[in-house]
Write a structure and sequence with these properties.
five-stranded mixed β-sheet, alpha+beta, 11 strands, rod-shaped, binds guanosine-5'-triphosphate, single chain, Alpha-Beta Plaits
Amino acid sequence: MTDSPLFRPIAARLIRRTIVLSALCVAVVLALQTWLLWQQHRQRLVEVVETVGSTHVPLLGVALWDIEPQAVQLQVRAIASWPEVGHVRVRAATGQVFVGGDASLAGAPHSHVVEISAPRGGPPVGQLELVADPAHLRSVVGRNALQMLMGYGVLVTALCVLIAVMLRRELQTPLESMARFAAELTPEQLTKPLQIERPTRQGRVDEIDVLADGISKLQAGLRGHIANLDDLVAERTEKLELLVEEIHRLSMTDALTGAYNRRTIDDRLPSEVERSHRYGRDLSVLFLDLDHFKQINDSHGHPVGDVVLRHMANCVRERLRSGVDWIARYGGEEFLVVLPETPLDSAVATAERLRERIAAELIVLDGGLNLSITASFGVTACREGDDSSTLLARADALLYEAKLAGRNRVASST
Ligand SMILES: Nc1nc2c(ncn2[C@@H]2O[C@H](COP(=O)(O)OP(=O)(O)OP(=O)(O)O)[C@@H](O)[C@H]2O)c(=O)[nH]1
């Protein structure tokens, strides 16, 4: 058994991808902007530190010239109080050193050094070394980056929500309806209309409308096709039933005379005998055989013999009770007539009537030739203990008797 593949709606996937891509874009833009901000503020920090240094240098010059360590220290503290300044060191020409700010930044590689001149242009009285505060830089850049992150975050979140709502409304809901409809559609439900919830679009169509329209047309086409198929099947079935009926009729009928054939005798006679025994009903049979038929064949040819056989079968059939009696060709020029509900005397009377009729009717052949024929009959009735073979054997023996007695006659016995 194979697991069915995991179902992942397209719209949900698009929404997820939009969110991931937006987050990536925000991260890249934010990183770039933070880097630019870092460069800008670092440059600005250096400038601020230089400005601060040069502002305090004249005052430091006076304090060092007057050898007033407290005033120097005061200036150092004032310089160190600037947020941009990390560390301050003043080295007096006398060798005295004054420090302020973060001592861990002392000796940093990018320090800014300014010579401190004596008041009124005397020789240098010391050196001022300033180091920018990297923590200040980090905090300023960090604050700005955080603000940008929040701004972008709000913007991107709002955009993602809007896109998600639109994708859900425009894509996910109609596609889900169509997918559910297609999955649940069975041949019996072909008339079920496809209903999709969609916002009104004032006469404009898109791929989903085209698809839905295609499905509706396909349904209509299939319905028409199935209806045609039903008609076609009904028509073919009718033809087939007629053909089967015809085949059945042919399988039961003798092709030359139209009488039933030997096979039908084997099929029907046992049940006629059985019915006669079970319900105590009369049943008679008569065997008839054309007299001197060989002579007709020999004198006029087989085709004429065939005409005579057909003539005789028709002559007998026309005089039987329709739907009750039946005639079958037993073989050659010998026929069996079955007379249900008929006692022997009535069967003998029927046989006599038939014999007279056959003998009386002239067969008109092509070329003006007229033929008269006679037939001999063996008639018997079904009696207790009979089956179809004993009944036929008795009728056949009686027919033989009729032939022996001179032909064109009826021999009978119970
Ligand atoms: N034309 C034609 N002849 C057939 C057919 N079936 C059998 N026959 C012929 O029927 C003839 C039967 O001859 P016989 O058995 O001697 O019988 P008969 O000449 O009628 O003589 P009796 O029955 O003794 O009066 C044969 O010549 C067969 O060839 C058939 O379908 N068509």
